[in-house]
Amino acid sequence: MQVLDNNAHSVFLLTYHMVFVTKYRRKVINDSISKRAHEIFVSIAPNYNITCTEWNHDVDHVHILFKAHPNTPLSKFINAYKSASSRLIKKEFPEVKASLWKDAFWSKSFCLISVGGAPLEVLKQYIETQGEKR
User: Fold this and answer.
1) Which 8-state DSSP code applies to residue 3?
2) What is the C-alpha separation between 126 and 93, in angstroms, rounded?
């Protein structure tokens, strides 16, 4: 059973799956870079009421599962994270610069998908049957 989060005025469970891809899909992410990118994510996340629950990577992208609050400005967090992680990774792993085009580490695009505990069809059916007598 999933535990609901709460604040002073609400109860919620907002879970997201996000994917960041390197610029031009350059194959530059290894275990060390992924570990550092994850550390940066975890250090910035509390400022935006975000909690990382799962992290993994391939050579050209990272997958992140995280929880957020209703007041979380996701676009601001994403911009802050991508900017900070790009700057720090290039500084701490100078060998990466040789594989990148100009200064960009991450692609401008990203994938953000909301993830829920129930399948969509179950939720649709629940909403459709509200107000019906049993």
Assistant:
1) P
2) 50
Is residue 25, in this structure, part of any structural domain at all? yes
Tokens of 10: 């609400």
Q: Which domain holds residue 70?
A: 9-128
Residue 3 belongs to some domain of the structure: no
Residue 69, both tokens: 């609050």
Tell me whether residue 106 is in a domain.
Answer: yes
The DSSP bridge partners found for residue 6 are 11
Number of domains in the chain: 1
Question: pLDDT, tens digit, for every residue of 25-45?
Answer: 999 999 999 999 999 999 999
A 10 A CB-CB count for 43 gives 13
The two tokens of residue 119 are 């399948």
Q: What is the CATH number of the domain that holds 97?
A: 3.30.70.1290
CA distance 33 to 64: 15
Is the residue at 108 inside a domain?
yes
Cα–Cα distances (Å) from 43 to 1, 37, 84, 95, in that order, read 28, 10, 11, 24
Per-residue pLDDT of 78-129, as tens digits, reads 999 999 999 999 999 999 988 887 789 999 999 999 987 777 788 788 768 8
